[in-house]
Design brief:
The chain is mostly helical. Helices cover 60% and strands 9% of the residues. The chain has a domain of 88 residues: Winged helix-like DNA-binding domain superfamily/Winged helix DNA-binding domain (Arc Repressor Mutant, subunit A, Orthogonal Bundle), CATH 1.10.10. It is built from 6 helices and 2 strands. Strands 1-2 form a two-stranded antiparallel sheet. It is globular, with a radius of gyration of 18 Å.
């Protein structure tokens, strides 16, 4: 990881410095994460989109495009491919029949579960090579990482029935 040097105690670290350090380390961790995924025919964007739908429930194409950092036409094409593969389905928003929501199918949930299980198996081998202290530090960081991932982003405030 890029941040392998000594850093001041977290409580004295300015937010901007923490953001810089974390951004560099997350880049390295994301590279590791990508290497753990088995070839499955799903791009990282497709898998991320499925995960977003799993986490947030049926979602509008506009929100998915913003969340994954792609254009709406690109997301429309991706959703069409995922729908053709039986991983998602489109349906009307119960609150506004003019709005189309994309939801996960059982096959989509299974594809995500298989992908996660494969990554977990490979990650367990890597984690076993770390010191007990490093494994404990990673375990202790899990709640903070979950909280970080759960912080709402601008694209998350697009209501499912508007916009």
């Amino acid at each position: 990881m890029e941040n392998s040097g000594e850093t001041p105690p977290a409580e004295t670290l300015p937010t901007e410095t923490l953001a810089d350090l974390l951004a560099a380390d997350l880049t390295a961790v994301f590279g590791l994460f990508r290497s753990l995924s088995a070839p499955s025919g799903l791009s990282m964007t497709a898998a991320a989109t499925l995960s977003t739908i799993e986490r947030n429930g049926p979602s509008r194409l506009t929100m998915l495009a913003a969340r994954e950092g792609v254009t709406q036409p690109a997301m429309t094409q991706l959703i069409s491919r995922l729908e053709d593969g039986g991983l998602v389905r489109r349906g009307a928003d119960p609150a506004d029949g003019r709005v189309v929501l994309v939801g996960l199918t059982d096959a989509g949930r299974n594809a995500l579960a298989q992908r996660r299980a494969h990554r977990a198996d490979k990650l367990a081998v890597i984690l076993a090579q770390l010191t007990p202290g490093h494994r404990a530090a990673l375990a202790a960081a899990l709640p903070a990482l979950a909280a970080l991932a759960a912080v709402p982003r601008d694209e998350d405030i697009i209501p499912a029935t508007r916009g």
